[in-house]
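Re: your question about DNA-directed RNA polymerase subunit beta

S., sorry for the slow reply, the queue was backed up all week. Below is exactly what I fed in.
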Amino acid sequence: MTPVIEGGDVKEPLRDRVLGRVTAEDVLKPGTADILVPRNTLLHEHWCDLLEENSVDSVKVRSVVSCDTDFGVCAHCYGRDLARGHIINKG
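Result:
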């Protein structure tokens, strides 16, 4: 996932797009092989701050569109429970 840019202006920054989502793969520190955010991590405010501080420009996140579960959507692909602020509960 990348920021939404139209006409050279950032319409929606990366932080706003990934907040509450779960990483699909390790996010590496730009220019190195160091893992900045591990795979399957719920991106809350702390992680988004870390992404901004390290100038990360794209993050691969899990999505309900590509979820491989047989029935419904798994918790990782659903992401953050907007009422409670943590990963959604099962069921």
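The chain has a mean pLDDT of 93. The chain has one domain: 4-78.

Happy to talk it through on Thursday.
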